[in-house]
Each structure stands twice: as C-alpha cells, then as structure tokens.
Amino acid sequence: MQLDEIYKTKDNIHIVYQTPESIGADSFLFYTFEDALVYANKDLKLDRCKAIIKNTFEKFITTPDDRKEILSKLNKAEFAIELLFEFDKEIKTPKYILDGLNWLNNQLK
After folding, report:
1. Residue 98, Cβ neighbours under 10 Å: how many?
2. What 8-state DSSP symbol labels residue 15?
3. pLDDT, average across residues 21-40
4. Which regions of 2-77 does DSSP assign to beta strands (E)?
5. CA distance linking residue 101 with residue 43, whole number of Å
6. Among 3-7, 14-18, 46-50, 80-84, where is mean pLDDT lowest?
C-alpha cells in the first residue's frame, strides 16, 4: 500500500511504514525492523560479525528465491544487537524509520 504524503499526516500524527525495496531486478517487502535493518546495512563489511550471521546475510543478498526462509532462520535480535554494537558509528537506519525521524525533526523546527 502506497499513500501520498498528504494522506500520511493528520495534525500531529504521521504514519510511516515499510514499503517494497528493490534488490537488483527484484522487489522485496520486509516484514520486521530487523529485516529492514539487514537490507539498509547490506554494504557493511561484516568481517567482525559472527560467522553464522555473516553467512546468512550473504545468502539473503545473493539468493532471491529463498529470502523469506533465510530471514526466518536468522536470529534477528542477535543480528540487530551485533550490528548495533559492532557498527555503532557506521550503521544505517531503515528508510521508513528515517522518514519518520525526518518528519518529526521538521515538526520540531
């Protein structure tokens, strides 16, 4: 579901939500924050992450047909915490959260 910006805001309420992301020629809708966090940080050098997380992440990017299954097997909380602690200065915010934070920042000006 895609809404025009005009329909996302009413008074002090603004709605943000995940929308499909392009991965190569494919489009994929992430269902959780952790899924979106994985995608937003796909370009990080994952050498510092645990091997299981690194391998799972690499499979996600290179195997389009199995993405839902790969994400279901990933310990998403562990992955998110690993990213936050290992890459605290480099980590990127998922797009839908960044959109919400930008809207809030503009309201506070």
Report:
1. 13
2. -
3. 78
4. 9-10, 13-14, 21-23, 26-28
5. 22
6. 46-50
Q: Give ∠ CA 27-28-33 in degrees, rounded to 5.
A: 145
Euclidean distance between CA atoms 14 and 5, whole angstroms: 9
Tokens at 22, concatenated: 């392009």
Paired residues of 14 in beta bridges: 9
**59-83 confidence digits (pLDDT tens):** 766 776 776 777 777 777 777 777 7
Count of beta carbons in the 10 Å neighbourhood of residue 53:
18
| Residue 34 near residue 76 (C-beta atoms within 8 A) | yes
Torsion sign over Cα 34, 87, 49, 20: positive
Q: Using the structure block, give the residue that is written with the tokens 């998110």.
A: 80
